[in-house]
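A note from the maintainers: we've had questions about how concatenated examples are separated. There is no special marker in the raw files; a new sequence line simply starts the next protein. For clarity in this README we add a label.
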Amino acid sequence: MLVASDHKAKVIRWRWRSSSPDPTVIGSCSVDANDRQQPRATSHSGPGSVRDGPLEHRVARVDFDAELRLHDEVLRRTYNIRADDRVLDIGCGTGRTTRDAARSAGKGSALGVDISASMIERARELARAESVHNVAFEQGDAQVHHFPKDSFDLAISRFGTMFFDDPVAAFANIAVALRSAGRLVMMVWQEHEHNEWSVVIEGALGREGSPVPAPEAREPFSLADQDTVEAILGAAGFGAATFTDVHEPVYYGPDVAAALEWVGGFSSTRELLMRLGAADAERALERLREALAVHASDRGVWLDSRAWIVEVRRP
């Protein structure tokens, strides 16, 4: 479900709901070894039994693109990419969203940027394998990367803008890369308490009397507050923002074992587990398995989520 509205004034409201996907299809994508993030990539091996399975088995069951398939459908409708657009993809990961943008901009081009060298290399491999020729990938931090000025019609991001050290500087750098009246369209998570996947994970991995979650575990929600986002974007040189409420579930795998492997690789999960002793960590993983089992069905393991699509223009 999706609801669009302006934060400050009534504009237009609309709803859209997709049909449930076939989990055997969305769980079949291949993915770079580092692309097990929520939502930022980090190289890791994962805790305990989650770590021990062969990589080929793990990545064949679910990946980040599979997890966010329903979100991608909403984003593609919102982008409204024209055939001759030049598109910039911030935090592109292994390049699925960049390749999709390049296909839509058949007479234009798409550039994906990500801080992970391994993800960029995998993105290039996949583009070659899929014969997408109007796409390029560069390793870099969007906060300081030297983008060509006034070059892009549209900047997009799927959960790739929440981790900047200096958000105002980062969005100002992106604004410089856009042409006059160019658009930024990004998807970010809403508050932790509105995202069942985060509440379930934190609840399972916590314990009575445990300290509050590490700051890194809450980083995905740094752009959840609309006033904060508007202030950042305004200071970066953008105009008024529009926020669209996206209410779609995330897919964690065809069964509980796959979901546990996947969630065990999230950076937020690792941060929480690393603060526990070995015995407590094992008990926490068992609680996590039980919590994921509650959300399992013959369609796979799905948990509720809420996100914003933020749209804004450079004046």
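[label: protein 2]
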Amino acid sequence: MAQADPNCHNCRVLEVSQSLARIFAILALPLLAACAGSPQTSDSPPVVPGYEGIQDGEFFIEPVPAQFLQEGNRREEVAYSGDDRPGTIVVDTYARKLYLVMDGGRAMRYPIAVGREGLSFRGTGVISRKAEWPSWQPTANMIRTRPDLYAAYAGGLPGGLQNPLGARALYLYRGGRDTMFRIHGTADAASVGYATSAGCIRLFNQDAIDLYNRTPSGTRVKVRTEVESLAAEGPQMEDAYGRVVAATPGNMSKREKDLVQIARKAEKDQVAAGKADRKRLAACQRRGIEPEDCPGPELPDAVVTVGTSDTSMNG
């Protein structure tokens, strides 16, 4: 083997350079590995267990946004002290809760939205009809009183994601006759837990499917009176945002504080809207456009909320 010349200065420089290169390469490996192995962050919102997206037949039901699933506004097994027998559905339109009574003093509790039609029934009935992705058709009275909302749907709507009855519907009968009272799903997740202008008893579509699967035909349904609700749930009140909460001194105080904050925000929004409108008009003036011809801000597409009286026998 040839011996390195001890007097070769260029050789020594080359050896040092090669050694430094090896050192830098070793030091750089963790950095390169860290870059290559960095997990990709996702901007997708968190999904609450039980409210994931569902492929249900030909339709995909979107996950329920976590913002609509705050404490008390999600499906939950709870203690139940009522005297209703297991298997009974108990609807409390005042507390905006639905209970499916279970054995052992337990119940599955679901949050609900309550529409005008949902307030018209009290007492008991029986689930005599069930439907998956039910069709919907407004009644003649609905079309006559609100043609602006219902005339376009006079021929009915087939089951699907845009149908107001959602993924599942349970139909309440009394004495063999349809009461027009429905327990059904909805794609309008923001409405669950609130009073609504139309509809009967709405659940998140995920909850409607869960209840449907637990409920055979012939299931007894009891809709509580106000007295029964007060005895079972205690005094209730609406908070500043329209959600039902226990009528405690703490919640009353919080409502007053929240109302002040809401009013302040509304005032700020009004000032900001006025400023934006003046800016819009000034821009039009510079372009020689008269105020009456000045384009306004783009508005989102109108969403028609329809009721849930159903005359179809499909499903």
